[in-house]
Amino acid sequence: MSSSSQSSAERSIVELIGVTKRYEQGEVVIHANDGVDLKIDKGEFTALVGPSGSGKTTTLNLIGALDVADEGSIFVEGRELSRLSATELSTLRRDRIGFVFQAYNLIPVLTAYENAEFVLALQGVPLEVRKKRVLEVLAAVGLEGRENRRPDELSGGQQQRVAIARAIAPKPAIVLADEPTANVDSHTAETLLDIMENLNREFGVTFLFSTHDERVMARARRIVRMMDGRIAGEDLRSSGDTA
After folding, report:
1. Measured distance CA(56)–CA(58) in Å, rounded
2. Cα 183 to chain center, whole Å?
3. All domains in the chain, ordered by first residue
């Protein structure tokens, strides 16, 4: 890797260089990512947009080390994922990347508090520090007073709030949100976006979304358009712009 590429990777939270991911469906080879170049800097509130099959979710999965690229390089905080061991990748996912999935992926037997605390417990964060941080993040997402409710006692929107709290509690470098508004109604979607936008503006939490939701696109300050596994273009808006 050239010195210029290295310095560029170190300045960004995430950088993809020529990333390709292929899947085989029978005799057909699908290029889910096809030579993707992408850079995400600290504090961005960015949406990957495009039709189903354009490569949005694959891109998030590759950045989150949930999948492995066939070609190209992926850097997270200057560390090239292909050079990390399985243990190092697991630690990176746990400590530096927050995930918000459209299906919530909460642990059903745990309360909202315990779900939000889960990663911190894995990290070995002391009990009193965990308690303070979890209560803070649950309050930040509007769940104060619902800490002891399990997922089946919460609405879909409240479950997604728990997922956001769980993602931000470990103070990751970036939160990857895959269609986070897909399974909630319009009012709840706007509320969730208010929460994430506030976390971004007030606390500097970096968000990268995959979405085809116009409401998310209206809030994003950078829109990266994908088509057939490639970056097809992008739009930038200043923080004062509105859709």
Report:
1. 5
2. 17
3. 42-69+85-236 (3.40.50.300)
Please give the sequence-ordered ranges of beta strands (E in DSSP) within the chain, or none if there are none. 14-25, 28-40, 45-49, 71-76, 79-80, 97-101, 174-178, 207-211, 222-227, 230-236
DSSP secondary structure of 191-242? HHHHHHHHHHHHH---EEEEE--HHHHHH-SEEEEEETTEEEEEEE--TT--
Contacts of 242 (CB under 8 A, 6+ apart): 218
pLDDT score for 103: 86
Q: For residue 82, give the DSSP letter.
A: G
What are 160-193's pLDDT values in tens digits?
Answer: 999 999 999 999 999 999 999 988 889 999 999 9
**Are the C-beta atoms of 16 and 36 separated by less than 8 Å?**
yes
Strand partners, 243: none
Structure tokens at 8: 């560029």
Q: Is the pLDDT of residue 228 over 70?
A: yes
Residue 102 has a pLDDT of 84
* Per-residue model confidence as pLDDT tens digits over 79-93: 999 999 999 999 999
